[in-house]
Design brief:
Length: 116
């Protein structure tokens, strides 16, 4: 009679060693306190500069959005007739303002910019 395997115990996988490679492949970040680049001071300085520039850009974007909404409201209040292409274009005091209503696009050009 043939001998069968003992199936009372589940099969065991071989034990894994805790290596840094194993830990790195699990998605955990290794401790990098002692592994800094030689130019870390310059990197931190540039990172701070970047964050400052980013915050200025975000503030400027918020200011731009507010100015755009006010300009659109003033153009709408003026009841200007759209041209055949659907755009509203007005030339006032050296500025040409073009509004594309469907795309919410506004272009403002000074006369000196148009000559260049």
């Amino acid at each position: 009679m043939a001998r069968t395997k003992d199936r009372s115990k589940p099969p065991q996988s071989p034990p894994q060693e805790a290596t840094s490679l194993n830990e790195a492949t699990t998605g955990e970040q290794l401790d990098l306190l002692d592994v800094g680049p030689e130019n870390s001071k310059e990197i931190v300085k540039q990172a701070k500069h970047y964050k400052t520039a980013l915050s200025r850009r975000i503030e400027a974007l918020q200011e731009e959005v507010t100015a755009k909404e006010k300009l659109k409201a003033l153009i709408k209040e003026a009841n200007l007739k759209p041209m055949d292409d659907g755009k509203i274009r007005v030339h006032v005091n050296g500025y040409t303002i073009t509004v594309t209503p469907r795309d919410e696009l506004i272009q403002v050009k000074e006369d000196e910019e148009q000559e260049e």
